[in-house]
Amino acid sequence: MALITFLSGGWVYSLIFSVVFGRTWPSIQFKATLMVIIQGSWALLLMLLDYMLPLLRLGRQPQGRRVNHESTRLELSGSGGSLHSSKMQHLQRLIRSTKAEVCFISETHNMSINRTTIINRFNVKDAFVVHSQGQSEGLWLIWTHAVDIAIVEHNPHYILVVCNNTSTSDQFGLVYIYGDPHHRTTSTIWARVLHFVVNHSTLPILAMGDMNELMHPNEKAGSGRPNISHINMLCDYVKQCGLLDLGYNGPAYTWTNKRFNSSPNFQRLDRSLMNIAWCTKYPQTAVYHLPMVQGDHAPILTMMHSTRPKTNPLFRFENWWLLEQDFNEVAKQSWEKSSRRPFHLKTKYLAYDLKKWRKAKPNISTQLGTIEDLLLQQQSKPPHLQDFSTQKHLISQHEDILRKLEEFHIQRAKKQWAKLGDRNTAYFHQAITKRSRKNTIAYLYNTDGTEATSPNHLADTLLNYFHDIYGITSPSNSSNLQNPPDSPTASPLHQSQANMNHINNFQQTHNLQMQQPHNIQIDPSSSSPQDHMFQHSQHLYVTSTPTVQELHAIIKKMRSNASPGPDGLNAGFYKAVWEWISTDIHKLVSDFYSTAFLNQDITQTYITLIPKKMQPTVPQDFRPISLCNVIYRLIAKSLADRLKIYLPNYIHNAQYAFIQNRHISSNIIIT
Predict the structure, then answer these.
(1) Is the pLDDT of residue 658 over 60?
(2) What does DSSP assign to residue 619?
(3) At what angle do helices 343-359 and 327-337 cross, to 10 degrees?
């Protein structure tokens, strides 16, 4: 104000002042410019105007608040200060390196930096500023030309926007949150978020930012206990909005008090949340916790499309195929074409034919759309021209397709408790999404501390870990394992001869036992003829070959939705086609009982890793399980049913767990 009062023509000089200030020049240059204006000649002043006015024109931005959304979003907390500070330089490097298209900065602690200044500093399309209140809060939203953004609502704790991708025309909602650290306005913040989510329920919505609260007690490490009531409150708000935690890749904690020498505290306060529509539209969304270089918060990077190489999908039998009218005929014809092939090759050719058959059919959503279009055409006609019998038939078809869609979701949701009820596909879809994200392995730490992120590196990390556990051979036994029959170094002739010798030896022993069925050891303590007959029948059962009825009973007890083995055929398939496949199954099982030999393709299994904790980071955090073929499980169950009769006679009475008619709780009574 003193400057304007001192000079004549103050309007011109105040204009120059605003331009210089808007460019946020260093203080020395700014003072030098003022001295030139005050002491210099008018000619020098005109030269300065000639230089500065183009900068003023470049600084102008079109009116309106249209904003753009991105396939990459960046969120930073505690990133305030001067635009030339180290934090802002780090932010600029992050935007360039990650190619972020939308960037949200909270806790700017700045009231003077405006929208135009931010645009010029970061060379972006537009920006939106919520000024801080004193030395607290403050929000910035920056976006590039890749998106258009419309600000719906804002206050010092949130910015609610609707985004349009300029290249794909996709529309979605973004919720940027800075949680109240004192928890005084938390309910108000989430009430407005819920209102936004409800009003835009058809849009994919992503919420991210500094929530200033945990969602699980394990998200805190260090001094002090987590506030369970605040945790439950945030979880309730998130559930009311229908949002899911996206999880993360990278370090577990996003905030620290940096008191490393006294009482360090680490918490996961920053996160990304999404609704079901987002899960459906962008299933490959990934969240990364970046290194905590500046400030006490880690930047959060959310990518809508993670760069994972596509692989050929494995064959997996879909239970909804059983609802197709021509399925049984197609499957039976394929099986009969392979009548002269062994069982494991029959399943391979069947899988190939079913994949061809499935590709020739439209997907379920397309079938639903076709039926609904036909119904709309019929119902758009005048009542006297409508064909009500056709409409009834179309509605019946529509119901059948919905049943297929329900089976599709139930098979993937793995919710065994859901047996009956209405067609709640939204719930199953949510369960599928959560299960898929939980089972996704995005990164792992190696034993040397390095990080594996690519599929090949992840595979090497896991293989090396399990090889170290299971692949070490005792030196004392190494001499007995030179070139075993199934060793890769053994010759095919040697391997085949060894297998035949093993089979012949087993056949001779088995046949000798079958020829002497009455050589039974009867318990002398049992003197009742009924007990003798019972033990004799037990012995006959143990040495018998399973019947077709017994095998069918075992199959029926298996879960139809259980994950299949390498052949891709689950128990639901065998239940549905038992009428024409039972003979081949019984022959395979009978051959095994007489030869003790199964083809390697049948005994193969998939090793699947089940996470032991919410955010696994090392191979030790996974529990391996085997996915066996149904036929292998069928034979194993039939053997177990025979062995469990005599197991109690060979296991000490002190062993109670996993033995029929014994209970581990009995040890408590004894103790």
Answers:
(1) yes
(2) G
(3) 140
Contact in structure between 119 and 61 (CB atoms under 8 Å): yes
CB 282 within 8 A of CB 204: yes
Strand partners, 140: 105, 129
Q: Which of 111, 106, 108 is nearest to 80 (CA)?
A: 108
CA-based radius of gyration for the chain: 35
How far is it, in rounded angstroms, from Cα 323 to Cα 561?
A: 15
Considering the domain delimited by 72-303, tell me its CATH architecture.
Answer: 4-Layer Sandwich (3.60)
Check: CB of residue 103 under 8 Å from CB of residue 142: yes
Q: Which of the given ranges, 44-53, 57-66, 137-146, 440-449, has the highest pLDDT on average?
A: 137-146
Q: Where are the alpha helices (DSSP H) in 99-159?
A: 115-122
Map out the domains of the chain as residue ranges: 2-59, 72-303, 319-439, 490-670
Task: Give the pLDDT confidence of 331-344 residue by residue, as tens digits.
Answer: 999 999 999 999 99
What residues have CB less than 8 Å from 395, skipping those under 6 apart?
375
- The count of other CB atoms within 10 Å of the CB of residue 413 is 21
DSSP secondary structure string for all residues of 363-383: PHHHHHHHHHHHHHHHHTS-G
Length of the chain as a residue count: 671
CB distance 164 to 170 below 8 Å: yes
CB of 269 closer than 8 Å to CB of 255: yes
Alpha-carbon distance 554 to 499, whole Å? 29
> What does the alpha-carbon distance between residue 231 and residue 456 come to, in Å, rounded to a whole number?
38
Specify the residue for token string 């039926």: 371
Residue that has been written with the tokens 């529309």 in this structure? 171
Contact 161, 150 (CB under 8 A): yes
CA distance 379 to 396: 16
Residue 227 is given by DSSP the state: -
Quick check: 297 pLDDT over 80? yes
On the question of pLDDT at 301 being above 60, the answer is yes
Helix axes of 578-595 and 343-359: crossing angle, nearest 10 degrees:
150
